[in-house]
Amino acid sequence: MRVVTVPCLKDNYAYLVIDDSSGRAAIVDPGEAAPVLEAVGREAVTLAAIWATHHHPDHVGGNRDLLAALPDLEVIAHHHDRERVHGLTRTVADGDQVTLDGLQARIIYNPGHTLGAISWWLEADAAVFTGDTLFAAGCGRLFEGDAAMMHASLQRLAALPPSTRVYFGHEYTEANLRFAAATEPDAAAIPAAIAVAAARRAGGEATTPSTIAVELATNPFVRAADAAEFGARRKAKDSFR
Description:
- The chain has a single domain (2-238), classed as 4-Layer Sandwich (Metallo-beta-lactamase, Chain A), CATH 3.60.15.10.
- It has a 6-stranded mixed β-sheet, with helices on one face. A 6-stranded mixed β-sheet has the order 7-8-9-10-13-14.
- The protein is globular and about 50 Å long.
- It has helices spanning 34-43, 57-60, 63-69, 147-158, 173-183, 189-202, 212-218, 227-238, and strands spanning 2-8, 12-19, 24-28, 46-51, 74-78, 90-92, 97-100, 103-109, 118-122, 127-131, 134-135, 138-139, 165-168, 210-211.
- It is α/β, with parallel strands linked by helices.
- Strand 8 (103-109) and strand 9 form a beta hairpin.
């Protein structure tokens, strides 16, 4: 498997997930079509599927134009989003497996940010695509779910193997780490994470992917002891500047 990060819109990331044996690929969360089609051409692959993590337009807003260009694409999202993702051809639920040639993903249902949020876990390739559920040092806002849902969702992701690479939906890392430092000033791993993120951004690089191990050490939402602590931290982050 090879992953190509595709910046979209202002600060979104889509991901081209490529099976090198066949030259076919899926795109995770195409917020817009043009950068995706450019990446597909540059990488000389055949786009076969859209894998959505949730229904928000900045994650699936490119579906319509991608399908206009490539009408045979398979479009997959959680069954809760069956009326909210354009071009949907297949719905999935927790634990389902999706196969694209040599790629095999298992669905992890992650309600909280939305009620149809899922992560795509490719266990054999040590990678998970988390959309707006788990960011580097952060998590998504609670637009449809509640604190208990999101805390449970994050704990499921935190239980993945520590070496698992975390491909997240937005470039929020530096702001998230500022909040992490203010929330847990004694967490030893946070200053180093801040330095790494700053160096990457200064060099014009994305901060994705993180790893589960890094999130366990630096993410105040993953590290929250229970849903009540998580809820207090999420409320504080909503107004943090």
